[in-house]
Amino acid sequence: MNTSKTKSKYQIAVVPGDGIGKEVMEAAIYILDSLGIDFEYIYGEAGDECLEKNGTALPAETLDIIRNADACLFGAAGETAADVIVKIRQEMKMFANLRPVKAYPNTNSLSDNIDFMIVRENTEGLYIAGEEHFTDDGAIARRIITRQAEERIIDYAFKYAKENNKTKVTGVHKANVLKKSDGLFKEIFYEVAKRYPEIATEDFYVDATAMYLITQPESFEVIVTTNLFGDILSDEGAGLVGGLGLIPSANIGEDGALFEPVHGSAPDIAGQGKANPIAMMLSAVMMLRYLGENEAADKFDAAILKVLNDANVLTGDLGGSATTMELASEVKNNL
């Protein structure tokens, strides 16, 4: 790795994973290689095929590759997704999951004016390994909410709003029923909000938010919430703008970041060249912004937008007949 003050090379951990993860990753790398940035890709294995081959879904070598890289691009995992992605998040202390929900042309979006970010806490709540067990009567899961983790994610959401010219942050919880755990979340939300008087605030119950995402999605700018609620609302958000094939994501921590599309490995179409690579490409755009390569990110993003706007070369899920790499070639031609 180049350790000079002005970095001329980035080491990128590339983990294609399973199924269409390999295909969409190839498409994203194809575009990244056209941007004139000096990337070094270091490949790692993870996922179902890795488990079958190596006896583990996430080898220690892959974790080391991710730890030592400037950023990680991840494709998709199948049945072992929880053993891979959740473990990477925990090992790398990636506390923030960012899920942009944005309307693009020719994608069956509910509205043309949808553009908001869901900031989801990534390390606690109901998604902690080992906090679930069977009992004589059934099973019990513990939901853990800590002041430190929630203050960190809420502050991150407000900083994101400030840095990206957003004017409002919405806190989402269920404090009317979960009075202690979500009551604490709501209390911290308004404590942190006082540090950002220029940002408007509001809070909704999660069930009301689920309705408002359908009835008034244009009213949201930044949503911050706990782990499970963020997971569910993110997929609802994807449904607002044409499906999971268009939704990227980022997992951000103090020591690293991982960028991935939120779709699965889609084994039914894997290897057929039918996969839509746009979510993977948009994840790569998020990675470029994380690395500070904003000019390249703008260029990549604009090329994707033009391809969608022209609607001449689209994959089957968007009503076209192009292959994964044909769409990638069209994006490259529009850079």
Describe the protein.
This protein has 335 residues and is an alpha/beta fold. The protein has 2 domains: 7-94 and 250-335, 3-Layer(aba) Sandwich (Isopropylmalate Dehydrogenase), CATH 3.40.718.10; 110-240, Isopropylmalate Dehydrogenase. Helix content is 40%, strand content 19%. It has helices spanning 20-32, 48-54, 60-68, 81-91, 147-163, 181-193, 206-215, 227-240, 278-290, 294-310, 324-333; strands spanning 10-17, 39-43, 71-76, 96-102, 115-121, 132-134, 139-141, 168-173, 200-205, 222-225, 248-252, 257-261. The strands form 2 sheets. It has a 10-stranded mixed β-sheet, sandwiched between helices. β6 (132-134) and β7 (139-141) form a beta hairpin. α9 packs antiparallel against α10 and α10 (294-310) packs across α11 (324-333). The longest helix is centred in the middle third of the chain and has 17 residues, at 147-163. The protein is globular. Residues 1-8 have low confidence and may be disordered.
Q: Approximately how much beta-strand content do the residues carry?
A: 15-25%
Cα gyration radius (Å) = 20 Å
Give the SSE string.
EHEHHEHEEEEHEHEHEHEEHHH
> What is the arithmetic mean of pLDDT?
94
- Oligomer designation: single chain
* Percentage of residues assigned to helices: 40-55%
What distance separates the N and C termini? Answer: 28 Å
The CATH topology of the largest domain, please? Answer: Isopropylmalate Dehydrogenase
| Count of individual beta strands | 12
By CATH, the architecture of the largest domain is named 3-Layer(aba) Sandwich
Number of helices: 11
